[in-house]
Structures are given as structure tokens and as C-alpha cells.
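Q: Make up one entry.
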Amino acid sequence: MEGQQPQGVQQPAVSQDAFTRWVYGRPFFGGLWLTLGGAWILLTMKASLKVVLHVGMQGVAGYLLPTLMVLLGLLILFSPAQRLFYSITGVLISLGTWVTSNLGGFMVGLLLGVVGSVLTFGWLPDQEPRVSRRDRHGPAQRASEDGPATGTDQAGTDTRTAQAVPATGLPRAAQ
């Protein structure tokens, strides 16, 4: 009972297994969804002729674009340093499947490809955890509730303004 941790507590990165560290070190779900979108479109290309809506461009691009989607998804998984180029290319190719292969795999493969590419584009490595709005504005609100800000005298006049405008009422630059 001594070595057990309560459920729901995140383990430190040192005790996580290698696969978990590998997944969190790259845009894993974006690459996975792009790969699955391309595989789905390739699968629908093999559908019976009664189901096929549109093959387009003599069928070559119908097989080429989903194959490139699978390739880009795998490149995102195994080479995340170039993720921006892969994600932009992936979204353009995914949108191109609308014309070339069964309306983008009956919209399922197209949507998987676009969402996977967008997830990849938005992924940032080693990002600091987000701070909630309440935590960001908390110190400023507490300072305003504590009393008047520095730079005011006991009469309540702003000493910084009083120094900038002399007794004559004109700014120093005009005198």
C-alpha cells in the first residue's frame, strides 16, 4: 500500500513509459487523423460501383491524393520538426479529394484529413501551461482594492501630473 498513488494523479514524466513520452513529444493525434482520413478515402475507392459517386481525372488522382495524405500523416508522426509544411500540404490535399475521390471519402476522410492537419498546425512543443483569466487578473484586482495607487499625495491629487504642469497652468515645453 505504501508505493501506490491515488487514481487520477498525473505521474511525473520520468516514470511515464517511452510510448507516452513519444506521443506527447509530437502532434500525434493530428498525424493519426490525417493518416486515417487518407486510409478511409483509399478504402472508399475500393467500394462497389453502385456506391461510387465520383472517380474523377481518370482515377489516377483519386488514388494519388489519399496516398499522399497517408504519407503526410506518417511524416507528421515520425518527423514533427517539419509539421507546418506537412499540415498545410495535408489540408490542401484533403480538400482536393473532394473533386478526385468519392467526395473526399463521403466527407468522412476529407473531414478527418482537414481536422488532423489543423490539429498539427496548431500544436506547439514545450508550451507553458495556460493560466486562467482569474489567476491573471487576480493580483491587479487585489492591488486596486488595497487603496490608492502610488504617486498620489494625501489630498488625493496626482503628484506626477502636478510635477508636469507648473503653477502657471502651461506645460514646461510651452514656457
Remarks:
- The helical segments are 18-24, 28-45, 60-78, 83-100, 102-106, 108-122, 133-146, 159-164.
